[in-house]
Specification:
about 230 residues; alpha/beta; Transcription Regulator spoIIAA; Rossmann fold; 2 domains; five-stranded mixed sheet; four-stranded parallel sheet
């Protein structure tokens, strides 16, 4: 089922009621456009997700990017009416608190009148460094959100050449690479040699289209096992 959205102003908050699937591609673009058409009037949005039956990694990554854009402009994106499936996804990826989820639409709207306490930042120097490389901004946002919630220090880039430079200066313990990063054997070998001690994890071709909760929990488990084995 394709994504359908209906927007309604309630005071200075826009409630976007969604039905269908939030997945990478046309659905993500449609959701982004639905938000963008009201950005001149407000930066306060509630996503009513009671009718959303499925979200993949790319879709969740797109929501993370929207959240970051709105908060950078002193707005917010709050979620309400999550189905049991979506609740599982946000709990599995540990992103429930990041997004501020509410049981009802009214609670989400009223939350805009209350100040939220900023989270205390963990010292960056004590966290393992991970670099993520992929051509998709949505996927990078998804990876970054999940890994930061697990107390990793995360760097992201869409270009392997930039990643090579970043590796030389930051010396991450792990690189997470999209499948397309191996298309140029020479460039990938140069990247790998930038820090031979760095572990490399290649994502499967279907990762972005995978169910977001399971993909996230599996990835965190793989990272933990990989870094633990080479601790």
């Amino acid at each position: 089922m394709k994504l359908a959205c209906k927007s309604q102003y309630i005071g200075d908050v826009v409630v976007v009621r969604c039905e269908g699937r939030i997945v990478a591609g046309e659905e993500v673009q449609f959701l982004r456009q639905e938000i963008e058409k009201s950005l001149l009037e407000t930066k306060k949005f509630v996503l009513h997700l009671g009718g959303v039956a499925y979200i993949d990694s790319g879709g969740l990554g797109a929501m993370v990017r929207l959240l970051g854009t709105l908060r950078a402009e002193r707005g917010d994106l709050k979620l309400c009416e999550l189905s049991p499936f979506l609740m599982h996804v946000f709990e599995a990826t540990d992103l429930k608190e990041m997004f501020h989820t509410y049981q009802t639409e009214q609670e989400a709207i009223e939350a805009f009148s209350r100040r939220t306490q900023e989270s205390v930042q963990v010292s960056r120097s004590s966290r393992p460094k991970v670099i993520c490389v992929d051509s998709s901004s949505d996927l990078l946002a998804y990876l970054s959100a999940i890994l930061k919630r697990c107390d990793y220090q995360v760097y992201t880039t869409k270009h392997l050449s930039d990643a090579t430079t970043m590796v030389k200066s930051t010396h991450p313990r792990l690189a997470i690479c999209g499948p397309a990063t191996q298309e140029s054997v020479q460039a990938f070998e140069k990247f790998r040699q930038a820090d031979p001690a760095m572990q490399i994890l290649i994502l499967p071709a279907d990762f972005q289209a995978s169910e977001a909760g399971q993909a996230g929990s599996d990835l965190v488990e793989r990272i933990g096992a990989l870094l633990g084995a080479h601790g």
